[in-house]
Design goal:
This protein is an alpha/beta fold and 312 residues long. The chain binds adenosine monophosphate.
Length: 312
């Protein structure tokens, strides 16, 4: 492994323009995408390299926002005359459930990830939500198997790209999915049974995201079960991207530590995931992550740790 990339974190995923409707507000041109949120959240913890594709309609200011978070955007391709991936969703009154109203693949349809040479020895890789066939291509393009590989997916791919998804699963260390996806993938109702079944598919570690109820970690050892709450917030404005920001905080901490999947690293990474997700949902898009001071992040992390601590 090359020293220069041992704490780097490569993410491949969607870079999008969303149209978000919540019971209280609406934003039509909201910059989103799994890789965007991941990078904005993880950028403060580890140097991130981003692979994705956008069209000419993607706002230049959003690229500048990523760069301001220290994200290397050499792997973000712009298609001349193309349109960015677009997704439209509406949240229910509970702000947890949502319906997808529209998905336009646009430049994603013919996307084939191209990795700059400088990304190919990166030690930490996160395959954010995107077609499993593209996730496989990225794994194949790496010069060597990264030390830690994480993966996110969604119900759509469990349904329509199951075969490719099972192939990727065999090659990853950590899978992050939500409760419903864990049940769908495993066919089990109990989360403990689902975790056993999913870990037998490849990933030694499974993280089940539970929205406002936090997240659970299973593995790599059977006794390694850990649960974190979500940070209680006075107001949730837009939950879009919370899962990706959780992943960014989680993987960012693991990359920063650079010492693998120890129980202590995984547990602390869960806390960082929850803290970064909490900033995300306080505003539309990644508004609350833009320009976020290190001191504000550190102070919320401390508050979160105190919230979970037993008196000594
Ligand atoms: P999350 O709220 O963490 O599930 O992530 C929301 C982001 O996922 C939005 O910004 C969307 O642009 C993106 N997204 C929605 N559908 C897809 C899809 N089929 N493939 C990749 N990204 C998607």
């Amino acid at each position: 492994m090359s020293n220069s990339t041992s704490n780097h974190l490569l993410v491949v995923g969607s870079v999008a323009i969303d149209w978000i409707i919540t019971p209280e507000a609406e934003r039509e041109e909201s910059v989103g995408g799994s890789a965007t949120y991941f990078a904005m959240a993880g950028g403060g913890l580890a140097p991130i390299q981003l692979v994705g594709v956008v069209g000419e309609d993607f706002p230049r200011e959003a690229v500048a926002d990523l760069e301001a978070r220290g994200v290397d955007v050499d792997g973000l391709e712009t298609i001349d005359g193309g349109l960015t991936f677009r997704w439209k969703g509406r949240y229910h009154e509970n702000m947890n459930d949502r319906d997808t109203l529209e998905t336009h693949l646009n430049c994603f349809e013919h996307f084939s990830p191209k990795l700059p040479e400088t990304y190919k020895n990166t030690a930490h890789l996160f395959l954010a939500n995107i077609q499993p066939s593209l996730q496989l291509q990225v794994l194949d393009a790496m010069a060597e198997r990264p030390a830690v590989v994480g993966l996110d997916t969604m119900n759509l791919w469990i349904d329509i790209a199951n075969e490719d998804l099972l192939k990727v699963l065999k090659q990853v260390d950590i899978l992050m999915i939500n409760e419903e996806e864990a049940r769908q993938l495993s066919g089990e109702d109990s989360l403990l049974a689902a975790a056993k079944s999913v870990r037998a598919m490849g990933p030694s570690t499974l993280i089940i995201k539970r929205g406002e109820y936090g997240a659970m970690l299973f593995g790599p050892k059977d006794e390694d079960i850990f649960s974190v709450p979500a940070m209680p917030l006075a107001k949730v404005v837009d939950p879009t991207g919370a899962g990706d920001c959780f992943a960014g905080g989680f993987m960012g901490y693991l990359a920063k530590q650079g010492t693998g999947l120890t129980s202590a690293n995984l547990r602390t990474a869960m806390m960082w995931g929850s803290v970064m997700a909490s900033f995300c949902v306080e505003g539309f898009s990644y508004d609350q992550l833009r320009g976020l001071e290190e001191s504000a992040i550190a102070s919320r992390f401390e508050q979160f740790v105190r919230m979970c601590e037993l008196p000594r």
